[in-house]
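Attaching the record inline, Q. Sequence:
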Amino acid sequence: MTAHTTRIAPGDLAALLGSRLCHDLVSPLGAIGNGVELLEMSPDFPGLSQTPEMRLIAEAVVSARQRIQGYRMAFGLAQGDQRVARPELARLVEGMAAQGRLSITLDAEGDFARPEVRMVMLALMCMESAMPWGGRVIVLRVTPGWRLVAECDRSRVDPDLWAWLDGGAARTPAPSEVHFPLLAETVAASGRRLQYEFDHTGGEIAF
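Structure, as predicted:
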């Protein structure tokens, strides 16, 4: 008698791996953050919280936690029935803005399907890649889809990367560029249509 074998789609398997890695990293970072807070409040170390060394450690922990939460949403498994409240999306967007040079405004109300939020985070990463010198992005919820509109003084657009949003490109992306094919794959899996344009002063991504 042959046992039934459950198979996992490669994309879902990669997302499960992403979820596992982010989950395992959140706990030790939380413990480090709690330890820093206890040291800062301890009467045995007066003025410790104001030292450059402690501020550097505290800021690094906050930065790492924000980045991992963003990765967890962008690269983790997203089930269709999971919802994300607006305050949580706002925290993710604020955390991403704090990590780089983008100013991000969220114009959306209600709560959202987690796969949609995953697409938003991946699209923001694509825009971040195109605007290494900074810029402004508005994230708009336009039922039944989303628009991300960007403005900048100058950009760096790699046609080979953006070609992934059309379904394929001539070269394999670097690990730091994986969000481009992931966005295309995630939007296609949702049955939506992906549109984009980007030039030297900005552009938009819609789905």
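DSSP finds six helices and seven strands in the chain. Strands lie at 83-85, 102-107, 111-113, 135-142, 145-151, 195-199, 202-206.

More tomorrow.
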